[in-house]
Amino acid sequence: MVIKKKEYKLRQVFDRIDALLKEVESLNRIYDRLKFDMQRGRTVAEIFEKNIYCHYVLEEIKKKEEERSSLLKEAENLKRELAVLHGEKKAVEKFIMKLERERRKEELIQEGRLADEIFSRRFSDSSFND
């Protein structure tokens, strides 16, 4: 159950990372267009306005990249946690299998003892009857 929750959270993190990448690509296209438009600016005020908007877009790109970086770190942590949980799960499964083998072995030993006892009684009873 814990593993499924971690895997789901990891999928959500990667989905958010993909969304951020698309947002950054979009912002980069906007920035490129603004830089091109700024070169064709007619007045100083128009160039200044586009320059301010360029800085705003660059700040947004920076924020998105920082968020993406933190999400990548979170994804790595989740991957490590999942690896540990999968390892623990395998160890528990192996231990359970070992216990099952030991229980089955004990049952076979008991069945063997019972068969030996029945067999020895049968022959000991039949030797007295002869």
Computed over alpha carbons, the radius of gyration is 36 Å
Strand and helix order:
HH
Reported for the largest beta sheet, the result is: none
Average per-residue pLDDT, rounded, comes to 87
Total count of helical runs of at least 4 residues: 2
In what range is the share of β-strand residues?
under 5%
Description:
- The chain is mostly helical.
- It has two helices and no strands.
- The longest helix is centred in the middle third of the chain and has 86 residues.
- The mean pLDDT is about 85.
List the defining traits of the structure above.
single chain; 130 residues
Helix-strand layout with pairing:
Layout: H1 2-39, H2 44-129
Helix pairs in contact: 1-2
Task: Produce a short descriptive summary.
It is built from two helices and no strands. It has 130 residues and is mainly α.
